[in-house]
Amino acid sequence: MAPTAFLPRVAFAQGVAERPPNLLNTWSPSRGVVQFNFTHRFDMSDAPLRKITNTPSFQVTTGVLGSLGVGFTYGSNSELVAAYPNEWEWFARWSPLSQGGGAPLDASLQGGWNLAAESFDAELSAARSMGRLRVVVAGRAFHHAFYQDTTRYAVAGGAVVRLSPWLSVAGDYATLVDRGDGERPVWGAGLQLTVPYTPHSMSIHASNVGTGSLEGISRGSHTRWGFEYTVPITLRRYAPRRAPQGGVVADARQAGAPAVMPQTNGPDPDTVVVTIRQFRYERDTIRVKVGDVVLWRNGDPIEHTVTADSGEFESPLIKTGQTWSHRFTVAGRFAYHCMPHPFMKAVVLVQEVKP
Ligand code: CU
Predict the structure, then answer these.
(1) N or C: more exposed end of the chain, with fewer CB within 10 A?
(2) Ligand 1 centroid to 303 CA: how many Å?
(3) Domains of the chain by start residue, with CATH
(4) What is the spatial distance between Cα 193 and Cα 35, in angstroms, rounded to a whole number?
(5) What is the CA 77 to chain-centroid distance, rounded?
(6) Ligand 1: distance of its center to the CA of 175 in Å?
(7) Could you report the per-residue pLDDT of 82-121, keeping only the tens digit for each?
(8) In angstroms, what is the span from residue 160 Cα to ligand 1's centroid?
């Protein structure tokens, strides 16, 4: 058994399936992916008018380098600063630690500028997945909070419990550290859905938050009902590249793949099989030695790819039941993902052969 076999998976982390409604989680998109999350939350005024008001919030993020992403949050009906309904927040987000990469937890640091508050805002967040449970915590600082000349702090926490590969329940809580009269803590509770056989996810929730900026998710107001939908857009899908190295074969037997996972201690090259099933690489970290072949078998009813984050290898779309293999000739750590579903991530660790 590989030492990392019990690591919880990090798939779906870019959507809402593994985070509560009002926490950003601890991810940054891969380079070449534009993540578009849109949230609409509604409330109704008192009788007799009963006017429905939408409080939309859009977040667009893209990966630029390694685990660094940049993006913005925009709310068109913001209550953050009086008479400033168009709230923009521009930020950079760095996610250096991930459980899928072998760390004990996921962690992100975000820093940005809120144009409505004219405030530098920052968040440090950490999360850990333990089986079906994922816990996310965050600490925040705002140097000119809510357009007032004071530095303020907030803390937040939440949890997600996965009920099935497609369905989770989630809740969160946040509060300003020095909450004043009339300032409410934030809460959110929702059903988090992965839309089957797509890279999209959806949250249906209730919360007392308006816009999704760091300041917006730190001070509560009244209850709203709404949803969030997340759309990762993989830019390279619109510009197909040259035929990649490696080969697709009709089925695993033709590739000479052993039925049982071999131990990779001996001197002879081995073939290590990774099955893709239910939108995940079933072993998210594998260790092989230089010269070994890794063979991916697609057990899903739709197509996936095996695409190195840094470009060392790239499969074409692997159809249902087909396989693709790659021989690793140099030692190193090779993180990879699926192009159509960038939340699918895993790692191959290639070690030198010891005589
Ligand atoms: Cu995929």
Answers:
(1) C
(2) 6
(3) 16-236 (2.40.160.40), 240-355 (2.60.40.420)
(4) 17
(5) 26
(6) 38
(7) 889 999 999 999 988 877 667 888 899 999 999 999 999 9
(8) 23
